[in-house]
Amino acid sequence: MCGIIAYTGQRQCKELLFQGLRKLEYRGYDSAGLSVLSNGHIELVRAVGNLDSLEKELEGDGCTGAHAGLGHTRWATHGRPSTANAHPHLDCTGKISIVLNGIIENYQDLREKLTAEGHKFTSETDAEVVSHLVEKHYDGDLVEATRLSIGEISGHYAFCVIHSGHPDLIVGARKECPLLIGVGEGENFIASAIPAFLSETRDVMVIGDDEMVVMTPDGVQILDLDKQPLDREITRVSWNADAAEKGGYETFMRKEIYEQPDSLTDTLAGRLPAGGGIVLEELAIPDKELAKIDKVYIVACGTSYHAGLVGRYVLENWARVAVELDVASEFRYRDPVLSPTTLVVGISQSGETADTLAAMRQARSQGARVLAITNIMGSQATRDADGILYTRAGLEIGVAATKTHVAQIAAIQLLALYLAQIRQTMDPKEISEVAAELKSIPDLMRNYLKNEASAYEIAKRYYQQPFFLYLGRGVGLPVCLEGALKLKEISYIPTEAYAAGEMKHGPIALLDKGSPVVVVANDGHVYEKVVSNIEEVRARRASVIAVATEGNERIKSLSDDVMYIPRTSEMLSPLLSVVPLQLLAYYIAQLKGCNVDQPRNLAKTVTVE
Ligand code: F6R
What we know:
Blueprint: E1 3-8, H1 13-24, E2 31-38, E3 41-48, H2 51-58, E4 68-74, E5 89-90, E6 96-104, H3 107-116, H4 128-137, H5 142-150, E7 155-163, E8 170-175, E9 180-183, E10 188-191, E11 203-206, E12 211-216, E13 219-224, E14 229-230, E15 235-236, H6 252-258, H7 260-268, H8 287-292, E16 295-300, H9 302-319, E17 322-327, H10 328-331, E18 342-348, H11 354-365, E19 369-374, H12 380-383, E20 387-390, H13 403-423, H14 428-451, H15 454-462, E21 468-472, H16 476-491, E22 495-499, E23 516-521, H17 527-539, E24 543-549, H18 554-558, E25 561-565, H19 574-591
Parallel strand pairs: 16-17, 16-18, 18-19, 19-20, 21-22, 21-23, 23-24, 24-25
Antiparallel strand pairs: 1-4, 1-10, 2-3, 2-4, 5-6, 6-7, 7-8, 8-12, 9-10, 9-11, 11-15, 12-13, 13-14
Helix pairs in contact: 4-5, 7-13, 7-14, 9-13, 9-16, 13-14, 13-19, 15-19, 16-19
């Protein structure tokens, strides 16, 4: 939520900062801005809306010639999107500028105190207090002023600050919000995420919680809050800078849908060895402990929660372990019953979602073992967990998650098989059979995507409908929940997703002649039950769009439209059945003229609760 970039070096920073923001735009696009150190003063340019507006503002000489500065793209929390509320913010003297991601929880108190001391605020944001605090504490030493300011703020944040009296100095700090350093030669970067500087350097240093960074073109120093220097390794990331480009696709979301077979191959790579068994190297929790686990508790938000729902079915079915599941924002404020024999699995693509991190921390403080399933190496989730299972889906830019979701499903399937192996709830032959089938899914998906033609035609028939109902049972239910979320978030069409058996307890009242009802009706042990629900829908003259297993001819006579997916065993089917629903949502949103990569009001990484 909100993207930050800072640069100091020999090159002109305007374009570097702007291009960095382009890579961070998925984190928010309510407004954007730059502040640069230019001939002893700070030059500020801001604009409401996405980066195209800022680009227009920057046309001409704006910010040209400077070699150090800050950039920000905003997802509004405190204060509506407006130029005044856009970052960077200035202090009263115009000599100090800050960009911030996160929330300053005590900003009201601070603002009142600072106002009483004579500071003049120009925005409604919580962030602006930081620039005034630095101003208040500044006595020639920007690092000390920043340190004293940190001592007064509470909340979670990552911020960077510059001062016109220090032409090449950037000071940054973080607490529970992401901030990384890109180490270059004679130049350095700070950013919320690696893609912001990936085209310039792959050498990355992580800034920890309650740490500060002091950065000039010649060096980077990480300090604790007593200003003691801390050692930090430089990691070279293997990501390819092209990953953040559309590569010939019209949108990131479409590219990422089509990358799913490759992502899945990477998720599985090395984990299903030819000799048999499941190998999960980073798991780090000893098998002895995993064998004693008597409950798995999954916590996640949004699409990741839907992957967790699939996890419930496979963990119960394969590993025969009790599974509970909750959205992280509820879990963290309940009083969950956990013990050292509970395995809490936090699923988070970004590894930075505030609620999921809080739920994981709470679980750890109650003595549970915590495992993070995440896509981002070095993210906060990996530091708050006892063990890690990386999804390895590659960089995802589209705000609506697609390839990372499929990778999360595969990761939790691997975990379930691994627990089944340790707990001996499946015999090795059975595990090998599932593993072999799992390995075949990327090719099935690749073929499916190559030949898929029905989703666009169906989208054309239904895209003007005001409401969609999604129904499914068993592992088809999480797929429906995900399909419905995808459609609502990128097309703004209201959707409901329901357990098909629950339909007659309420949602059936919504159905009328022609109402589109998407039903996940794959072959499996609940197939006949789903067919009964389809009949109930048809009796209300609603239109049925079925996702069904290739070869099922009967479904054609029961539905208005069918999207066939390749045949798999039931527990693996979500990997494939979610894909036509992603495509359906995608085409409907495109036909409605929506910006699928930047749906309104959303941000990809939700670092505030
Ligand atoms: C929807 C979507 C969100 C995220 C949710 C959790 O397409 O992407 O619902 O799944 O915000 O994010 P992570 O997985 O980063 O914790």
